[in-house]
Hints:
The protein is mainly β. It has strands spanning 2-5, 23-26, 32-39, 42-49, 52-60, 74-89, 97-111, 118-126, 129-136, 155-156, 161-169, 172-181. The radius of gyration is 17 Å and the shape is globular.
Amino acid sequence: PHFLPFLPDVVQTAAPMAAQPVHRVASPDERSVVEVGIREGRLYYAVQRGGRNIIMPSMLGFAFRGQPPLRDSLRFDGLTRRSRDTTWSQPWGEVARVRDNHRELHVDVQETTGLRRRFGVTFRVFNDGVGFRYQLPDQPNLGEFEIHEPRVGHRGNGGVGVAWHRGVHHDHGPHAAGGAPQHGGDLQDVG
């Protein structure tokens, strides 16, 4: 499979579909909440912290070069949850032991029409932040692909800071990181 962290696509087109349930996952201290749902055939996520909207419903999906986008006519095709509370050691930095305490929600979605391609998104919610990554499993109707203009788009709540990280793989390849305060619009990756 191909793992692609933090690459939502925010291009607009709609394929009407019936409403599907909204799935929620909260941080271990219950203060941060991620909601994931499908609306009009598109996958969305939103983030709240202490009951305040931090990231308003924002679409997830892909735009590929030379292929139709993978973002429309979606349905849930699987869901798993897990929690983790472990400690690991790092050989560098100021802190030798790092606690990994989070709750996780993984959703699989599939197109209901056309190529019937699928992808997954794993959300991890920590007491002090939220992260997610895409998974594009090997599948007959995807084959080789190139993501067209990868970008991060979040509909933020004015004044709330958002940071992002983009990379090829967790231990090698190009990486970019950044952040900015939100003023109500979209935050786009500048890398």
